[in-house]
Amino acid sequence: MRLYQLVQLSCLAVLLASCQQSDPDSGLATEADPQASSITTGEGVSGGMVPDNPQVSASGGEALAVFEKRILPIFQANKPSSCTECHLSGVELRDYIQTDQAKTFASLVRVGLIDVEKPDDSKILRFINRSPEKPNLITDKVRQQEHDAFQAWIRAAVKDPALLAAKSSDSTGPQIPDEVIRHARKDRVLASFIDNVWTEVGRCAACHSPDQNQKQVKEHGEQVSWITLRNPQATLNHMVDAGIINADEPLESMLLTKPTMQVEHGGGQKMVVGDRTYKQFRRFIDDYASVVNGRYKTVAGIPVESDELSVVTDIWFKITEVPARYDKMLLQADLYRSTGAGWSKHRVASSDRLVFGKGKLWQHSLSLTATRGSEWADEMKSGRLPAGRYLVKLYIDQTGRLQKDFRTELGDEEFVGQVEIESQWPSGYGRMTAIQFPTE
Ligand code: HEC
Ligand code: HEC
Predict the structure, then answer these.
(1) What is the dihedral of CA 181, 182, 184, 190, to 10 degrees?
(2) Is residue 352 domain-shared with residue 222, that is, in the same domain?
(3) Does 190 contact ligand 1 (Cβ within 6 A)?
(4) Cα 252 to middle of ligand 2, angstroms
(5) Same domain membership, residue 282 and residue 189
(6) How many whole angstroms separate alpha carbon 149 and alpha carbon 67?
(7) Do 165 and 260 belong to one domain?
(8) What ligand 2 atom has the least distance to the C-alpha of 204?
(9) Confidence of residue 440 (pLDDT cuts 50, 70, 90)
(10) Do 216 and 90 share a domain, yes or no?
(11) Residue 439: which pLDDT band, with cuts at 50, 70 and 90?
(12) pLDDT of residue 136
């Protein structure tokens, strides 16, 4: 039964496709051809209204024919419409179509998407025509077909008194709030990727960026080059294709499992569950999975974007004399800058990594951190930390809180001490700023 239906559907699809190709503007052709009109009249009005005027009935049948031949297939198709080039979910052209022509027309008129006076100016045509700066050739062709189909149908439909008289109280279009549609837009998703992932890949670049990893590629193969230089969108696309980001099983994403060593990783342990980088990666991956799977239905369901932005630097920071008992625990160092009036309110840099107990050592590169929209958020893009006096607050996760709940922020309970320092904050592994662990 299923198979039979499938076959039937695909035959129909072939038929429709060929109709479309051989006679792209069939609607207009019949208009100028009285003979064709009378043929359409004979078929088209069956089950519809019975008009006195053959001209009118001609266009009535014509609109229906175009609707059935070119609009309904868009409704029934299971391939994505051109809208998905910019909207990852939440919006499909079929949301504007119902199986019934009159209802479709009336609801589109009601919400102002069809202009019955100037059919070619109808807003829905402009909607469909919206294309990105660098359109994809295939989507562009789909878009053109969608546009021409709607244009032909609207042109025919506005000449049909029965359709013009049709009333609808139905809403049309996507049934989710605009804010949800906005959240699922590709440009928004890319912006979140840049905030949460792209800004961190600097710490993976030595082995994963094609300008630096010849040795790794030779040993392990091309797949280690998962960063595309200066191109976050291409990097995201590749990550999705390669399963580095897995929208169906977010926690299986290699972006999480490799650097945390949940699976073997040629680069060793680069993050731990719950550290700042992990939090950011999860924020993006979890949200991405919900977006592409269309899981958001309400504004309340959309996650709030983080108030903090960060930038990875090559400024190294070292703490010596760390008590060995903190071995393999996550130590987080937050830096506050001296201002005219005490210490900065928000941390201006941060770094977190496991303690190396045997060496009584902790060292890592700093990430600059700022509140979104602040002046410092702009300044820190240079990757430099101004010379001067800073307060370093230290936290150690001694109870494995982050492992249990990666969203947790270390706080008073994990606080182990603070140190004031003055530094020029030079960059480079060989020029680390160092402090001693505060005596307890
Ligand atoms: C080139 C990218 C692009 C394409 C393709 C695109 N849209 Fe959009 N869409 C946008 C942008 C950008 C916005 C928000 C800005 C605006 O309203 O001008 C938006 C907004 C919307 C909104 C309103 C939600 C809001 O933010 O207020 C709807 C509904 C919508 N689009 C539907 C569609 C449909 C249906 C299609 C396919 C026929 C489509 N879009 C194709 C980029 C696109
Ligand atoms: C010192 C070198 C090195 C660093 C730094 C490094 N890695 Fe790797 N990574 C490797 C090597 C080598 C492989 C290939 C072997 C393997 O799959 O484990 C690899 C593989 C991967 C893969 C699998 C790619 C694929 O498509 O198969 C991912 C994902 C990954 N690393 C993520 C990261 C992340 C995220 C970081 C930064 C936080 C990072 N790595 C830092 C060396 C490194």
Answers:
(1) 170
(2) no
(3) no
(4) 15
(5) yes
(6) 8
(7) no
(8) 37
(9) low
(10) no
(11) confident
(12) 87
Helix (H) or strand (E) holding 314: strand 308-320
Identity (one letter) of the amino acid at 129?
N
Segment 133-185, tens digit of pLDDT: 888 888 999 999 999 999 999 999 999 999 999 998 888 999 899 999 999 99
Which residue from 193, 198, 203, 207 has its CB within 8 A of the most atoms of ligand 2, so it is best to mutate?
A: 207
**End position of a domain, from candidates 144, 175, 206:** 175
pLDDT at 144: 96
What pTM did the predictor assign? Answer: 0.85
Q: Which domain holds residue 279?
A: 182-301
8 A C-beta contact, residue 77 and residue 94: yes
CB of 282 closer than 6 angstroms to any ligand 2 atom: no
* pLDDT one-digit tens code per residue, 279-315: 999 999 999 999 999 999 999 999 999 999 999 999 9
Residue at 98: amino acid letter: Q
Q: Is pLDDT of 230 > 60?
A: yes
Q: What is the mean pLDDT of the chain?
A: 88
Angle between helix axes 54-66 and 34-44 (nearest 10 degrees) is: 70
For residue 277, which amino acid is it?
T
Residue 96 Cα to ligand 2 midpoint, Å, equals 45
CATH code at position 422 = 2.60.40
Ligand 1 center to 170 CA (angstroms)? 21
Q: Please name which ligand lies nearest the alpha carbon of 246.
A: 2
Same domain flag for 186 and 171: no
Number of domains in the chain: 3
283 and 204 both lie in a single domain: yes
Which residue lies with its CA nearest to atom 16 of ligand 1? Answer: 182
- The answer, yes or no, to whether residue 325 has pLDDT greater than 90, is yes
Same domain flag for 42 and 79: yes
Rounded to an integer, what distance in angstroms lies between the CA atom of residue 436 and that of residue 333? 13
